[in-house]
């Protein structure tokens, strides 16, 4: 018998098994495009927010800000690129044009650009400098171009669409390869609009004619992905919040057409018919643009790591924003935080305790080698473990070889063939018994689970539900160093200060004189009474290692013990003054706006501004978007001292700070003119004043 004949017999006898052992499982659509795959593998990249509102301390420019304000004397895009590169990011998206309409490049189509600014005598081009710096540092470049333009006289008319596309063409033609375009859906209606100073409404679903704009992008930049929150489905989706997290369940799917609800944005859609992956966008400070008042509010290492685990660790990418200062640089504090963050991510995932360890599985496709359990720990994302077709529950066990401590579990699906896994658990073999250490729902491109350190000899991934056969391309097991979290500081209405650690074991040290707290500072022994203006800085320390958390820096203005909220149920309304951002009071008056909040400060004060913290619960109603602020000496005659919008408060409900010229007054009135729902519900977590 010759060899070929023998092989023939073998093949005929076991055709199904043989084929299965060699051929890949069938895809389960929708599938990611090659652009979406490339983008997902970038994992984290930066945003830079820089425009005329950098010079006016605003969140959104109105469109009438003077171009002459733009003069970043020390502008250095290489500094931005260096920081992002060192922080492990793979690209930078620049706000080429924000809502105010000011262009960071010399656009042929408007005078409202760097060309008419004093910076470099009008010869400068920030987008060019950014593109050059990205090239030098091996980063990709992305473009934010706001569809809403509060400067353009044509906004709202068909002519504006031509203008918008002309600008897009400039940006996608003259600056090399662009990896992502970002079309913000925000639109507050009112604007300068070439001097009209009016409110213009557009129909988000039809006005921009996205279909033809997308065709233009595909023609000019075929490798570019599209983020769009305002209209037709792009390649990527917003996650419904700017606070830095996507849902614990996160499908990279949506429906190609039809309504998109908040839940769909946040969790994706298990049976969606289009691949629209999630991007978590958040700022390293509360706001997107630079505000000097937020210098003490840069996200700490624990906050940034949480953001990482809740974005990259939940099958999304992380788009982390750096506000650029008026001088054209990233602030040193943001730089320090970003570099610490990048270093910690690198260190945490440097040693994979599962790599090349012995792995076995409950089921293997065709019982062959090509899809064996070892493919999940072979350090190659192009190979994967696959059970047989139609197996939707299965397990894979990794023998760590010896008792090993770990507290992070990373797992990846082979998504070129679709996202499949619906639920899974992670178990550790401790003292001969299997113990569940974590469980979760979806996996997708990458899932990282965080749990308390466990010491075990084996670790087991149990897929407990899947849309189809699960395909696992990678598993990693890590032992992350503990990071101490900064405590929270609250001052209640009576002036009592409470410093609250994130865990029970830490010791707290604090200062009240603005100096940096150390373990030699005063030890916190419980709430203490204060009076007057106050700056509390505090750290949490691990008593056994002596290590300390980042510092928390809270400034408090007047004590509020004699304040009264007038004309309402004061007992309930007091939530506004209790210093606790988690408590809130809502009111509505006569079912129509305006709705007033009147506070008696107890005595005359010298006021220069106020702050408003809206309801902090996710997507709670009653967030004020437009307001007037009045002061009075006698609660009879009122003087209007400020009228404005709280820009972007819906997407980013952080504390709003408004300043005005000094006013002597005993009574204040915050009048809500408009809220997020168009009704008269107004919610307040905190209201405070700023004094001279
Ligand atoms: C929001 C905008 O309104 C903010 O100003 C910021 O640009 C953020 C990234 O998107 O919707």
UniProtKB/TrEMBL annotation:
EC class of the enzyme, as a word: hydrolase
Protein's UniProt keywords contain RNA-binding: no
Pfam families hit by this protein: Alpha_L_fucos, CHB_HEX_C_1, F5_F8_type_C
Residue ranges of domain F5/8 type C in the record: 344-480, 541-692
PANTHER family on file: ALPHA-L-FUCOSIDASE (PTHR10030), ALPHA-L-FUCOSIDASE-RELATED (PTHR10030:SF37)
Homology family: Belongs to the glycosyl hydrolase 29 family.
Protein name, entry field: alpha-L-fucosidase
Species per Swiss-Prot/TrEMBL record: Mucilaginibacter paludis DSM 18603
């Amino acid at each position: 018998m010759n060899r070929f004949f023998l092989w023939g017999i073998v093949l005929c006898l076991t055709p199904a098994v043989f084929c299965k052992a060699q051929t890949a499982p069938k895809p389960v659509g929708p599938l990611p495009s090659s652009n979406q795959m490339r983008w997902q593998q970038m994992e984290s990249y930066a945003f830079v927010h820089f425009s005329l509102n950098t010079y006016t301390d605003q969140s959104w420019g109105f469109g009438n800000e003077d171009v002459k304000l733009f003069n970043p004397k020390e502008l250095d895009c290489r500094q931005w690129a260096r920081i992002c590169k060192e922080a492990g990011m793979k690209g930078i998206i620049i706000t080429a044009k924000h809502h105010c309409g000011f262009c960071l490049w010399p656009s042929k189509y408007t005078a409202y650009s760097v060309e008419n600014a004093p910076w470099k005598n009008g010869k400068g081009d920030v987008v060019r400098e950014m593109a050059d710096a990205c090239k030098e540092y091996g980063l990709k470049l992305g473009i934010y171009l706001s569809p809403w333009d509060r400067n353009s006289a044509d906004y709202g008319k068909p002519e504006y669409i031509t203008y918008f596309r002309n600008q897009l063409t400039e940006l996608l033609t003259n600056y090399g390869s662009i990896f992502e375009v970002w079309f913000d859906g925000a639109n507050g209606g009112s604007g300068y609009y070439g001097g009209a100073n009016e409110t213009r409404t557009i129909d988000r679903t039809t006005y921009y004619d996205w279909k033809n704009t997308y065709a233009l992008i595909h023609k000019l930049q075929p490798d570019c992905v599209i983020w769009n929150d305002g209209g037709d489905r792009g390649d990527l989706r917003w996650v419904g919040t700017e606070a830095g997290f996507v849902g614990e369940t996160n499908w990279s799917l949506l429906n190609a057409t039809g309504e998109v609800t908040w839940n769909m944005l946040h969790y994706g859609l298990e049976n969606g018919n289009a691949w629209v992956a999630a991007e978590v966008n958040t700022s390293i400070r509360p706001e997107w643009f630079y505000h000097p008042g937020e210098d003490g509010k840069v996200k700490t290492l624990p906050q940034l790591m949480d953001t990482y685990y809740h974005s990259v660790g939940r099958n999304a990418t992380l788009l982390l924003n750096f506000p650029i200062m008026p001088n054209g640089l990233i602030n040193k504090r943001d730089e320090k935080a970003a570099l610490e963050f990048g270093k910690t991510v690198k260190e945490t995932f440097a040693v994979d305790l599962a790599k090349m360890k012995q792995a076995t599985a409950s089921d293997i496709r065709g019982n062959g080698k090509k899809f064996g359990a070892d493919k999940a720990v072979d350090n190659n994302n192009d190979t994967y473990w696959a059970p047989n077709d139609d197996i939707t529950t299965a397990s894979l066990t990794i023998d760590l070889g010896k008792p090993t401590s770990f507290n992070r579990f990373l797992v990846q699906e082979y998504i070129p063939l679709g996202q499949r896994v619906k639920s899974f658990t992670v178990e550790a073999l401790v003292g001969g018994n299997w113990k569940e250490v974590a469980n979760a729902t979806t996996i997708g491109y990458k899932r990282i689970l965080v749990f308390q350190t466990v010491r075990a000899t084996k670790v087991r991934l149990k897929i407990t539900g899947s849309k189809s056969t699960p395909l696992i391309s990678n598993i990693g097991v890590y032992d992350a160093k503990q990071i101490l979290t900064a405590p929270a500081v609250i001052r209640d209405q009576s002036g009592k200060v409470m410093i609250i650690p994130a865990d029970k074991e830490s010791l707290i040290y604090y200062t009240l004189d603005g100096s940096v707290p150390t373990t030699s500072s005063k030890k916190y022994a419980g709430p203490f009474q204060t009076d007057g203006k106050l700056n509390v800085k505090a750290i949490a320390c691990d008593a056994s290692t002596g290590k300390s958390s980042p510092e928390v820096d809270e400034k408090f203005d007047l004590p509020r013990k004699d304040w009264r909220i007038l004309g309402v149920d004061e007992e309930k309304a007091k939530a506004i003054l209790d210093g606790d951002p988690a408590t809130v009071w809502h009111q509505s008056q006569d079912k129509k706006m305006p709705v007033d909040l009147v506070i008696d400060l107890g005595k005359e004060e010298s006021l220069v501004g106020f702050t408003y913290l809206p309801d902090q619960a996710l997507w709670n109603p009653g967030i004020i978007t437009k307001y007037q602020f009045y002061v009075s000496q006698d609660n009879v005659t009122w003087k209007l001292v400020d009228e404005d919008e709280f820009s972007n408060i819906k997407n980013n409900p952080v504390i709003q700070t408004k300043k005005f010229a000094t006013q002597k007054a005993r009574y204040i009135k915050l009048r809500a003119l408009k809220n997020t729902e168009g009704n008269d519900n107004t919610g307040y977590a905190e209201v405070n004043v700023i004094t001279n």
